[in-house]
Amino acid sequence: MWKEKGLDSFDTKVETVVEKNVLVLEDDEEAIESIMSGNIWKIEVKIGDIVKAGEVLVILESMKMEVDIEATISGTVSQILFKEGDNIESGNVLVVIKKDEK
């Protein structure tokens, strides 16, 4: 049975795996992370939107409570990494903002 299923031997070759969730930011970009686990209830911005620090970007739902995730800097939304309805974990990057040039 072991031979039939191919379980009687194993290959010692090691494959290099590139982690899918590695996010590389430019010098002028900042990641906005989730402060808690939950669901993305609503995304208030889209790519290309200009936002101000303190503006609500995403509304999370967790344990029947809504939690606002706000921009920590002013700039332009360059990436949105999840969609409405997605389950997320604390620390997940939700949005990337390209900082205003000053």
Descriptive overview:
- The chain has 102 residues and is mainly β.
- It has strands spanning 29-33, 38-43, 50-51, 56-62, 65-70, 75-80, 87-88, 93-99.
- The protein has a domain at 29-99: RNA polymerase II/Efflux pump adaptor protein, barrel-sandwich hybrid domain (OB fold (Dihydrolipoamide Acetyltransferase, E2P), Beta Barrel), CATH 2.40.50.100.
- Helices cover 0% and strands 40% of the residues.
- It has a 4-stranded antiparallel β-sheet with strand order 1-8-6-3, with no helix packed on it. A 4-stranded antiparallel β-sheet has the order 5-4-2-7, with no helix packed on it.
- A hairpin with a 2-residue loop joins strand 4 (56-62) and strand 5.
> Roughly how many Å is the radius of gyration?
20 Å
Share in helix = under 10%
Share of residues in strands: 35-45%
CATH class of the domain at 29-99: Mainly Beta
In CATH terms, what is the fold-level topology of the domain at 29-99?
OB fold (Dihydrolipoamide Acetyltransferase, E2P)
Main sheet?
A: 4 strands, antiparallel
Tell me, what's the shape? elongated
CATH architecture of the domain at 29-99: Beta Barrel
Strand order of the largest sheet: 1-8-6-3
Pick out the low-confidence regions.
14-20
Counting helices, strands and paired strands, the structural category is: mainly beta
Brief overview, please?
This protein is mainly β and 102 residues long. It has strands at residues 29-33, 38-43, 50-51, 56-62, 65-70, 75-80, 87-88, 93-99.
Summary tags:
OB fold (Dihydrolipoamide Acetyltransferase, E2P); 0% helix; mainly beta; four-stranded antiparallel sheet; 102 residues
